[in-house]
Amino acid sequence: MDRLCIVTTGGTIDKIYFDDKSDYQIGEPQIGRILNELGVAFSFSVIPILRKDSLHISDADRELLRATIAAQEAERVLVTHGTDTMVATAKVLATIPGKTIVLTGALNPARFRGSDAEFNIGCAVGAVQCLPAGVYIAMNGRIWDPARVRKNVAANRFEAAAD
């Protein structure tokens, strides 16, 4: 892998909570800071295209993401995305041929102690380097086919979708 291309869309991984307002905003992408702090042995570039909760990502946003990734020279792309509509976005990205695309996110903000963000990013980095061309989701320590996974909101995890 010459250089990992990372495209960010916001989501819980980048959320900043304000206790006094009981509200949040999507902050700066956290993945670059996380990878730098971990001292990874590869170069990467971060393309921040959206700062949205995934529930607010529109079809036009998904098309922007698809076009942005398709325009990159990189054959391996990691996407940070909110978990609620990650599967829907992955299905749109499946129309891009010849690239390995791995989507990941977090169920708790990266800024929070005990967040799953670093673990999911590490899993996604490993997956994007090893998998053949296609689109995948890296969450909860597993690599998922977007056509066969769903987010179980009640259990707050990804699991196999019922056929």
From TrEMBL:
L-asparaginase N-terminal domain mapped to chain residues: 3-155
Tree of life domain: Bacteria
GO MF, one example: asparaginase activity
Gene3D superfamilies for the chain: L-asparaginase, N-terminal domain (3.40.50.1170)
Keyword flag Electron transport: no
Amino-acid positions noted as binding substrate in the UniProt annotation, renumbered to this chain: 54, 83-84
Active site residues of this protein: 12 (o-isoaspartyl threonine intermediate)
PANTHER family for this protein: 60 KDA LYSOPHOSPHOLIPASE (PTHR11707:SF28), L-ASPARAGINASE (PTHR11707)
Protein name: Asparaginase domain-containing protein
Organism: Denitratimonas tolerans
